[in-house]
Write a structure and sequence with these properties.
Blueprint (H helix, E strand, L loop, with lengths): L3 E6 L3 H13 L5 E7 L15 H8 L4 H8 L2 E3 L1 E5 L7 E5 L12 H10 L11 H8 L1 E2 L16 E3 L2 H14 L3 E4 L2 E6 L6 E6 L4 E3 L2 E4 L6 H6 L4 E3 L8 E8 L8 E6 L2 E7 L3 E8 L6 H10 L10 E4 L3 E3 L3 E2 L2 E3 L5 E2 L7 H14 L8 H27 L6 H8 L4 H13 L12 H10 L16 H20 L2 E2 H11 L2
Parallel strand pairs: 1-2, 1-12, 2-8, 4-15, 12-21
Antiparallel strand pairs: 3-7, 4-5, 6-23, 9-10, 10-11, 13-19, 14-17, 14-18, 15-16, 16-17, 19-22, 20-21
Helix pairs in contact: 1-6, 1-9, 3-15, 5-14, 9-10
Bound molecules: flavin-adenine dinucleotide (FAD).
């Protein structure tokens, strides 16, 4: 059987992640990979905060962490701090990790809720080592001993996405990927309604292929434009449609977490890298004009700007199918969910890994395509609901926030909120983000409260419960005191090299 000729269209994070993974994880007898990108068009140039799953991707393609971090000016990330999303002055951290420990057949938060109602628990975040480390500006690798509190968290990275794409390019080219520089101007079809046969470059050259991966960003040049796959608009639930992005100087002390600060018509991100800080204001143009949003961002930078702000427009939603005939859309070409929970690169990773697992032997395999699309739909739907929760469950007073509070949410989210309110139950599922501790952190963090305590959490006498909670709090405090300063850890780690 001849190898499948894969043509990756686009050289942003999506394009190079796809090319590097295909070239590493599939034997050359199975596929050859070419990647077309245009320096003239460039990339979207944002996307710096990631999720812990990214480590598995990097490991799978043989990236050495210390080397990658040094080359991309990366820092560690233990969670996201949400500031002012509840009432003014409130802040909670959504950690990459658990709270306390489960006991008596139910999750920790049920026990905490019972003790909190009796005034005996203190804030939920005191039971999370990841949150404690964020607050203390500390970092260390999780322990592999599952009995240790040090094993109850995970970590991700903040990095310079342009440098990461360059890093992957070097790796991919070293593994046989051929890069073609230039703009393609036409998508050639096998028949009017058939698959893609090739693309015509501006130079007139034709690049033929068997399987095309559309990584052309928001333009979705093949999936959206050429194949006409419809767009599912989700802006009725996620009304932010614009961003200003600007880089500023490095923070004096670099924290191990992203910040998301609610503002009048959206929210501002702060992503701390080793050499600079990534900032942006994501807002709804129906509630704030561009000039006011730009000013809001510039007036609220943590350090002086080192460039002029850039404006980016988008709409929340996704293509009805990611895999159509012999073309698979990956990254922004397949859909967009704002970076509130840093999920876009994760979605790229999932698309690439599902593509490898379902890699076809003939170009137009409708059965594999249907399964791929099902899996990606689940991923998108789950993230969508989680993001909407942040907006819907706010307690702010501006028109934008009142609109979000009053809007109808998808049934799938309404059911989850109702179940939580009823008895503190949080979603648990086998596919897709997010895990129960994430739901716990955002539901409680945004001020929602269950009406009743789970009966299984009422078995323990209150004095015993109290002592157990004190012991967990001490374990967390001791755990964090043994960790290193994040700044120092990052600079020492960079020295490890390869
Ligand atoms: P792009 O980077 O736009 O790349 C498109 C590629 O296609 C380019 O190489 C371009 O040259 C090429 N191309 C297009 N048309 C042609 C043509 N005709 N011929 C040749 N080449 C062509 N994600 C996260 O995970 N974390 C974050 O913190 C985060 N923050 C974000 C903030 C904002 C404001 C936005 C808008 C997005 C953010 N994202 C984030 C998403 C993230 O930026 C993207 O998922 C990621 O960069 C992947 O983009 P891409 O590769 O799909 O598209």
């Amino acid at each position: 059987m001849d190898p499948v000729r894969v043509v990756v269209l686009g050289g942003g994070t999506a394009g190079w992640m796809t090319a590097a993974a295909l070239a590493t994880l599939l034997p050359r007898a199975r596929c050859t990979v070419r990647l077309v990108e245009s320096e003239q068009i460039g990339t979207v140039g944002v996307g710096e905060a990631t999720l812990p799953q990214m480590r598995a991707f990097n490991d799978a393609i043989g990236i050495i962490e210390a080397d990658m971090m040094r080359r991309t000016n990366a820092t560690f990330k233990l969670g996201i701090e949400f500031v002012d999303w509840g009432v003014a002055g409130s802040a909670y951290i959504h950690p990459f990790g658990a709270y306390g420990r489960p006991m008596g057949g139910v999750g920790f938060h049920h026990h905490w809720q019972r003790a909190a109602a009796a005034g005996k628990a203190g804030p939920l975040e005191r039971y999370s080592l990841a949150v404690a480390a964020c607050r203390a500006g500390r970092f260390d690798f999780p322990d592999t001993d599952l009995t240790s509190i040090q094993s109850t968290y995970d970590y991700a990275y903040h990095f310079d996405a342009g440098l990461y794409a360059g890093y992957l390019r070097e790796l991919a080219e070293g593994r046989g990927v051929t890069r073609i520089e230039g703009k393609f101007v036409q998508v050639l079809r096998e028949a009017e309604d058939g698959g893609v046969a090739g693309i015509r470059m501006e130079s007139g050259n034709v690049v033929p292929g068997d399987l095309f991966v559309d990584c052309t960003g928001f333009r979705s040049a093949v999936t959206g434009e050429a194949l006409g796959v419809a767009w599912e608009d989700w802006s009725q639930w996620l009304p932010c449609d614009r961003a200003w992005a600007v880089q500023s100087e490095r923070l004096e002390t670099v924290p191990p977490y992203t910040r998301s600060i609610a503002r009048e018509a959206g929210w501002q991100w702060q992503i701390p890298l080793q050499h600079r800080t990534g900032n942006g204001y994501i807002y709804s143009s129906a509630f704030m004009d561009d000039d006011a949003a730009r000013e809001t961002l510039l007036a609220n930078l943590p350090t002086p700007a080192i460039m002029e702000p850039r404006s980016i427009r988008f709409q929340a939603g996704r293509r009805e199918h990611s895999w159509t005939r012999n073309c698979v859309a990956v990254g922004l070409a397949s859909g967009f969910l704002e970076p509130l929970e840093s999920t876009s690169i994760y979605l790229i990773q999932m698309a690439v890994m599902h593509l490898i697992a379902l890699f076809p032997t003939r170009p137009d395999d409708a059965v594999l395509a249907a399964e791929f699309n099902r899996r990606m739909d689940v991923e998108y739907d789950r993230i969508r609901d989680f993001l909407i929760l942040h907006y819907h469950a706010n307690r702010r007073d501006e028109p934008f926030w009142r609109h979000c509070r009053d809007m109808a949410v998808p049934d799938s989210l309404a059911e989850k909120i109702a179940l939580f309110r009823h008895r503190g139950s949080v979603p648990r599922y086998g596919e897709g983000l997010f895990s129960p501790p994430s739901w716990v952190s955002v539901l409680f963090g945004q001020g929602l409260e269950p009406r009743a305590v789970h009966p299984l959490a009422e078995a323990m006498p209150m004095s015993e419960l109290d002592a157990w909670l004190v012991a967990i709090r001490s374990e967390v405090a001791a755990g964090v005191s043994g960790m290193s300063e994040h700044d120092a850890f990052v600079s020492d780690y960079g020295e490890w090299g390869i």
